[in-house]
C-alpha cells in the first residue's frame, strides 16, 4: 500500500551552496506544499515539549503538482545491449539455481520477451517444475523442485522444427524424491526472437520494469553461443560480466545480494576474495529495493549563512503531512561552534523501514491522538525492508538504501508503544538531545556518520567536543579510526547512548546510497548470515561485531554492550568515585546524593533497553572510572547478550550474570588532553527533557559539556 504523501531526498547531508533534490509522491488532486523547517524536537508526546519545528519558510517554500510515484521492489539483472543481438534459429539456455520459494507462482530465471506481444522466451520456475515459454508455446517438466537445493536447469527452442525442451537436475539427489527430469513438445510455431533486453531473475512487464521475480540464488546463466555471465566477477559492484563472444555485460537492479557461495563451494575457504570462483552466485529476492528512481519534484540550494543543524522539508497536501529530514553541515573549514553533534546516520539507515509487526489498533490510536508521523512500514510495505527484517523467502536483509521513502527516519515517528514514555528510536529519539542543546543555549554544528566516513578525523579536528546520540550502533573502520584518532590527539567524546560502536557495516562508491551488514558469529540479531557468507560484498571485509575484529567498543569509549531488555528505564546510583576530588565537578549542582534518573521520555527512566558496562578484559582503559551504575532491571525482561555469556566464569570475573545487567556511566582521560564520558544506555537522552529540562541528568550532562567544550557557561535554568 502506497502512502498518500511521502518522498525522499537524493542527499542526507549538504553544505552551503550545495543542492538537495526532493522526490515526492502525492495522491492529492491539487498541488502539495513544501516549506523548510529546522527540527528542534521530534517527539510528539504531549506530556513533553511536543514537536518543535522552527519555521524557515522565508528561506524556502513552494507549491508543486501532485504526482503518484511508485516503488517497484524485486531484484534482477538486465542486459540492455542484448536488444541488438540476433538469436540463432535453435537457441539453448542454462543456469544453476538454488530456489528458496519453489512452491510459489512463476519465477523467471532468464528471459528475453516483448511484454506487449509476448514474443520471445522465458525459462521459468513454477510449482510444477521448470517451464519453458516461447511465444504462446509452453512445456513443463512436471516435477516440483526442492527449496535450498542446487539444480542445473536448461531449455532449448528450435524455430525451424518447433521443438521445445526443458529440464532440471539436482546436483545432489535425495532418497525417494523424484525431482529430476526433462520434457519436450513440438509446437506449430515457435517465436523466440524479440528485440528486447535479456533479464536474469525476472522478465519484462507491461506496467512496470519487471515482474515474476526470482527468489533464490542464480549462478552461471548462459545462452549457448551468445553469452555466459560470470557472477564471480565484479562482485563489489552492480555490474555483471559476460565472458561470451559478444561482451553482453549487464547491471543489477534493486540490489540482490552478492558474495554468495555458489554450487561449487567446498567450505575450505570462507573469504570470497581468495576463492571468487566459489562465490559465483547472486541471491535475488522479489522484495529487494535499492533506488526507487523517482523524478525530482523540486530542489533546494542551501544558502550561505544557514545555521548548521537538523532540518526538514515539511510537506502538506489536504489533510496529509510528512517531513523529510536532512542535515546542514557547516561550510568547509568554517566551524560555527566548539561543539559538534555526530548524527548516527549509519544506524538510522540500517534500521530504516523496520517492519516490527506491532502496529495494532492501540498503536494507531496513539499515533492519531499525538498527531505523530502517519506512515508506518507495517502498513506501507512497498518501500523496502530494514536489515532487521527477513526477506519473504526467510533470508536476512543485508542491504539498506536511502534512495527510497525512509518512513522510520522521520521526526515524530513512534517506533514502539511505550507505556511510560514516547516510544522513539533513532532520529526522533536523538531530537531529545538537540532539543536539550537548544534549551541550554549551546550552539552546535552537525555532521553525519556518512560525512565522517568520507572525510575522516579532519572533519572533527576544529571541535573541542563530539556528542553522539542515543544509539550509534553501526560503524565503518573509517569512522572508528577518525573518532579514536580524534580522542588520542586531545579531542573529547560524549557518548550519550547505549549499544554503540557494535556492528561493522560497509559502503561502496560503486553502489550509491546503500549500506551493507553481515550478521556473523555472535551478537543480538534477528537473523544470521549463512556459513561462508560472512564477508561483505561492498568492501570485502569480514562482517559482524567489531569485537570479532578485535575492536570492542570498550577501547574507544570505555564501555560496551552487555544487556538488552524491554523498553523500560530505571535509575542510576552514584559511586564513590563520583564524589572524589577528581570527578566531583561532574555532579556539581546535582540534587540527588545517590539515585538519579528515574524519569524520562524513553521507557520512563534514564537507564534502559540496551545497556553498556565497563570491562577491562575487553579493553576499557585502566584509568576509566565508573561514576554511576544502573540497577533494578527486571531479570525477566533483560538478558545478558550472547557474546558476554560465552565462557562466562564467575570465578574469573567475580560477578554473576545478573550483575552484568547494568549501565556504567564512565569517565576517563587521555594523555594529550582528550577525555571520554559515556553513559551506557539507549534511554539516557530521553531523560534530558524531563521536568522541563531541569533535572539531575540534564545538569550533569551540562557540566561535562561545559568542561569538555570549554564553554565557560553557567547553568541556565
- How would you characterize the largest beta sheet? 16 strands, antiparallel
The poorly predicted ranges are none
Strand content: 25-35%
| CA gyration radius, whole angstroms | 28 Å
Helix count, DSSP H or I runs of 4 or more residues: 10
Structural class by SSE content: mainly beta
How many beta-strand runs? 42
Query: Globular, elongated, flat, extended or rod-shaped: what is the shape?
Result: globular
Distance between the termini: 47 Å
Instruction: Domain count, please report it.
Output: 3
Approximate helicity band? 10-25%
Key attributes of the depicted protein:
mainly beta, 717 residues, Immunoglobulin-like, 16-stranded antiparallel beta sheet, single chain, 3 domains
What does this structure look like?
With 717 residues, the chain is mainly beta. It has three domains: 5-71 and 293-324, Sandwich (Immunoglobulin-like), CATH 2.60.40; 76-284, Jelly Rolls (Sandwich); 325-708, no CATH class. It is 11% helix and 30% strand. It contains ten helices and 42 strands. The strands form seven sheets. It has a 16-stranded antiparallel beta sheet that branches. The chain has a nine-stranded mixed beta sheet with strand order 28-26-29-31-42-41-39-36-37, sandwiched between helices. Strands 2, 4, 5, 6, 24 and 25 form a six-stranded mixed beta sheet that branches. Strand 9 and strand 10 form a beta hairpin. The radius of gyration is 28 Å and the shape is globular. The mean pLDDT is 96.
